[in-house]
Amino acid sequence: xxxxxxxxxxxxxxxxxxxxxxxxxxxxxxxxxxxxxxxxxxxxxxxxxxxxxxxxxxxxxxxxxxxxxxxxxxxxxxxxxxxxxxxxxxxxxxxxxxxxxxxxxxxxxxxxxxxxxxxxxxxxxxxxxxxxxxxxxxxxxxxxxxxxxxxxxxxxxxxxxxxxxxxxxxxxxxxxxxxxxxxxxxxxxxxxxxxxxxxxxxxxxxxxxxxxxxxxxxxxxxxxxxxxxxxxxxxxxxxxxxxxxxxxxxxxxxxxxxxxxxxxxx
Length: 266
Description:
The chain is of the alpha+beta class and 266 residues long.
């Protein structure tokens, strides 16, 4: 069933994938089914029904495995389409760094520019995703290997290449560059790093980073970040809080991989 859905997903038919998930959950007890329907409807209002999935309310139902499998296969299919049609805005160098992961990310999240073997930027460099090299646990600090000045200039992100030596687990901090906050896919600041400079609130679905965060760093001196497991947030019901100049090597078993959105607060 999953394989037959991938083509629909790549073509943009979110309804097909959403209905597949609904069908996979019909054997659940009524209350979980009701919550799932509410979440999908909320997501439809956001314009991307599948991405409204709230793992915390479904993690005990078995639906999470179905969703994860569908999304993983759809992402791989999107990368294959991009490789043959030139969808990505910047093509990765063959055999350089985490090329296949970067190709998949560029296909899944439009508007990005690859500026090195390890890094994609969006929004003029204010959003940065860094990938570890194959066989490595940590994404490199800064822009990684083989920085491409022309790509940086085209993306309006040349300022990223003027960063001073300061960083906290790869998350930039001061000295020629703005303060930032970062999310990591693995504990102990390992895995992919997603970094924001001038964003006070956002949705992890926008970056293919939903249900992936295990550790974080906040070097920003004027923001306190609150994270959530839903898109429509209630500021008092947060997963964790990131005060100014703080970090966490592991968010904890009870909220690991739950984050889907965040916002600034006091």
